[in-house]
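Subject: complex prediction, re-run

Hi both,

The earlier run crashed halfway through, so I resubmitted it with identical inputs.
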Amino acid sequence: MLPTDALLQLTPQGLYCEAAGAWIDPWRPVPRALITHAHADHARPGCGEYWATASSEGILRKRLGAGIKLIPVDYGALHRIGEARVSFHSAGHVLGSAQIRLEAGGESWLVSGDYKRDADPSCAPFEPVQADVFITEATFGWPIYRWRPGIAVAREIVQWWQNAPERASILFCYAFGKAQRVLAELACLGISDEILLHGAVEALMAPYREAGVQLPPTRAVSSLERKADLSGRLVLAPPAAHRSVWMKRFKTPQTAFVSGWMAVRGARRRRGYERGFVLSDHADWDGLLSSVRESGARQVYVTHGNSDGLARYLHEVEGIAAEPLGGAFAAERGDNEAAANNDAPDGA
Amino acid sequence: MQTFAELIERLDVSRGTHAKVSTLVEFFNQCPPHDAAWALQVLLGGSRRRLITGRRLRQICLEHSPLPDWLFDDCYSHVGDSAETIALLWQQVSAGGDDRWDNASTAEPLSSQPLHYWMEVLLPQAASAPDPEQQAAAVRRLWQGLSAQQLLVANKLLTGGLRIGVAKGLVVKALAQLSGVEDAVLQHRLMGGFSPTAQAWETLLAPTDALAAVPSRPYPFFLASPLELNAGTAEGAPLSGPTEHWLIEWKWDGIRGQLIRRQGQSFLWSRGEELLNDAFPELIDAATTLDDGTVLDGEVIVWHPGSARPASFAELQRRLGRKSTGRKLLAECPAAFVAYDLLEWEGDDWRPRPLSQRRTALETLIQQLPVATQTPAAGLLRLSEQLTLAHWEELEPLRQQATDTGAEGLMLKAMGSPYLAGRKRGHWWKHKRDPYSLDAVLLYAQAGSGRRANLFTDYTFGLWDGSGQLVSFAKAYSGLDDGEITALDRWIRSHTTERFGPVRAVEPLQVFELAFEGIQRSTRHKSGIAVRFPRISRWRRDKPAAEADSLTSALALLGPIA
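This time it finished cleanly. Structure:
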């Protein structure tokens, strides 16, 4: 638990910084919200004002409403909010994602939001930031998780797709973040074929194109004629579309799921996709450890996933004061099927 | 080994019989015979020998790594499979890339070595290294440069536990496609063990049979299907024609066995193709009274001389899995072989003949045995009793008598049926008595393994004792559908009261109807009872925990025979 005199406090609405009069990724409507990124479990509707990175503005307005009061900030710029000095730093998770650093009363805190350390052509890279106290996620906080470069996974995807010219290849991935990362990786491989998209993915493409991310040409499946021949086409869709009526128009598609969870055989078999590609927008075990070390923090709090395990490891093996952060963070996001199967909560 | 690891992965992800079979055909087609033989051996589960324990592998993996044991356990309960956990962790541990280990990472990966070389040389050699240090080095050499999938397969082969989602029937189907030899013939050729050599592979798939001469070789068992009367008139189901067209017998709760007498030798095989000669010496003795060229199908069961009903399955269990059987145990748990079919007589294969002929011959054969082996009440080899019905309305009352007779239910076999291989619907039916059932309260949950890893699917249930406490009495793993599992998993996570390692205690609120086949007193269980094959039949969301059953109601099920 957080000490009662700490800069940040855990309230029923979420993490609260009294000095700034602001909540970070609040769970319920509050007057002032600082948003790490636009995934649905971090950015919720109904707040008085939102502080968020300029590059996340497009998606936030799409998801929370065009009329929200949003103060766009640039990465690295220092802002005074109330008594606190606040800055947003790239988290490398998805387009516009940030870690938020707060400083007041001679103490600095860094809230990671979701982050990854691997290269991703669809968003800015992670920026190491130092602080006295670091609140890190641990969605994939088990040493069994070790990511390969995105480009290597993209090569596998291309091979899978191009080896089945007689079938449509439906690739399931989270609609915001993962889908665009896959597309950007394909562009890096020189793929210029038109990729088909489910409506939920299509809806989020514009902000990426506006941000100048290199992407192959795309088109909504729904804009094609009902009887169009889809064999040999690659289609990106959110997991919620798997086994839904939407799939009826594909005759005998091959299916695959792109997610960090696909590293484990049981998870692959359970979900019933023919193929699993291991690609995550979260930090793997090494990424978590190196980020904690680079933060230079004397105290670490851990949220999400294996928060207990990572905190204990940091404490016992690395000798860093660390503990899991309770409250609604204890809901074990990603640790269960339901959460991981729904679209958007974590972009795992 | 590389192509075999790929095969396992492809089988894992392919859906449906057709896809799996064509994956297998494609693999075997381009596989050299010696490797094909080993692949088949592994696929059929015939190489389950543990060369090295999972615990030792884990030790080798974690040696010199900063990862503590508790973190391994944490990973294991997340992954649900020990060999896979080690495979995934080794990638992390070895990724340091420095020369912590004697084998520099420049050594050529062994994945390019053929499967037979792995199975015959590399794996046994690593496992039997003279001292722990050399063993660790040898195992790390095996692991060197392997992909995650190859590591998983290597570890599974080392620990003897490679189970893949491919049924024997599918493998046989693929072999049939490959060779043009009939399914049933291949099944027969595969019975009683297969030795993984290039020659055995070629003999197996040869157009003509060179294997018939092996005296120990059993026939594939013919299996019955459950009779579901509510499902209407299933094709070939009884209850339509005259009752005399059916052989009706008790279904005993023993183990299926095939007793072979050929060339002066006797063999007793279980349905799982284990040779039971050492476990049941008295039946092997009794088989010497059979003529050469005789094969019987029947039930192996413990039956005390003079008793009207067989002993419990627990007594039979004491006789299983033994290399030798002492005189004391032989006296305490005497076995009998209840014969119900004749597969071979005078050296001829009788399986194509109708059951009516086989039964008549079987009766004659048993009657001709020396008195010592065939006295109906005390015989070691005895004839399965034929039950008669005047009309089908008597079937249900007869089934109701099963419990009192000590049987599991009834068998109904078409008198005109040949003896087929495997489960073929339409000829043989099993009609079990209704299971016992109790409403119990969920107390503990633990994550499952394999497909259910990281989902709470292993449940412990309790019943009320006299003092208003819940006492755990049974574990169950099956019976809920995927939707219910997910819902219950979520409920468990939000209603956990305590954690004991991987086990969670939950608020005692959810009631489930459990079905089970048998119930016995037990001193090893806190509740004082043990149940057989417990499974969940319904989630009683409508029932408050206070209305769940008590130990007293469970004891009442024990009935007079306890």
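Chain A touches chain B at residues 142-146, 263-270, 272-276, 285-286, 306, 309, 312-313, 316-317, 331-332, 335-338 (CB under 8 Å).

- K.
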